């Protein structure tokens, strides 16, 4: 396992975990845009759970690589959906945020 893979995997897991916690605690800077984008409130716990599972999977992937790959693919799909949701809401200034969260996950997948 390379040092770069270890760093980007932990960074991606930390960022996804932070994002999940932000949804679970209804951080204003997260839930207000979700409401503006038209994401139903009933989906929020599921979205947070998906990000938390992805974060745990990235860490587990340090020991069982296939789990990390599966978690990485899941998170890339999740954040791709987030990019599409933000673009559909015409909130182009916010497109950088899901891309920023996706970047270390993509890097971890590339380095796997």
Q: What key phrases describe this protein's structure?
A:
0% strand, 112 residues, single chain, 5 helices, mainly alpha
What would you say this structure looks like, in words?
- Pfam families: DoxX_2.
- Its main location: membrane.
- There is one protein chain.
- The protein has 112 residues and is mainly alpha-helical.
- It has one domain (3-107).
- Helices cover 79% and strands 0% of the residues.
- The chain is built from five helices and no strands.
- It has helices at residues 3-24, 28-37, 44-60, 65-88, 96-111.
- Helix 1 runs antiparallel to helix 5 (96-111) and helix 3 runs antiparallel to helix 4.
State the helix count: 5
Radius of gyration: 14 Å
Order of helices and strands: HHHHH
What does the largest sheet look like?
A: none
Distance between the termini: 8 Å
Total DSSP E strands: 0
Strand content: under 5%
- Helix fraction, binned, reads over 70%
Number of separate domains: 1
Mean pLDDT: 96
Query: What sort of overall outline do the alpha carbons produce when their principal axes are compared?
Result: globular
Given helix and strand content, the structural type is mainly alpha
Low-confidence stretches: none
InterPro entries: DoxX
Keywords: Membrane, Transmembrane, Transmembrane helix
Transmembrane segments: 51-80, 92-111
Protein name: DoxX family protein
């Amino acid at each position: 396992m390379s040092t770069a893979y270890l760093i980007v995997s932990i960074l991606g897991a930390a960022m996804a975990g932070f994002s999940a916690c932000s949804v679970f605690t209804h951080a204003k800077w997260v839930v207000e845009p979700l409401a503006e984008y038209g994401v139903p409130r009933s989906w929020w716990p599921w979205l947070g759970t998906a990000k938390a599972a992805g974060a745990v999977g990235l860490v587990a992937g340090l020991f069982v690589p296939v789990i990390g790959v599966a978690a990485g693919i899941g998170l890339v799909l999740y954040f791709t959906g987030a990019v599409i949701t933000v673009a559909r809401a015409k909130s182009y200034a916010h497109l950088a945020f899901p891309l920023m969260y996706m970047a270390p996950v993509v890097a971890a997948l590339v380095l796997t």
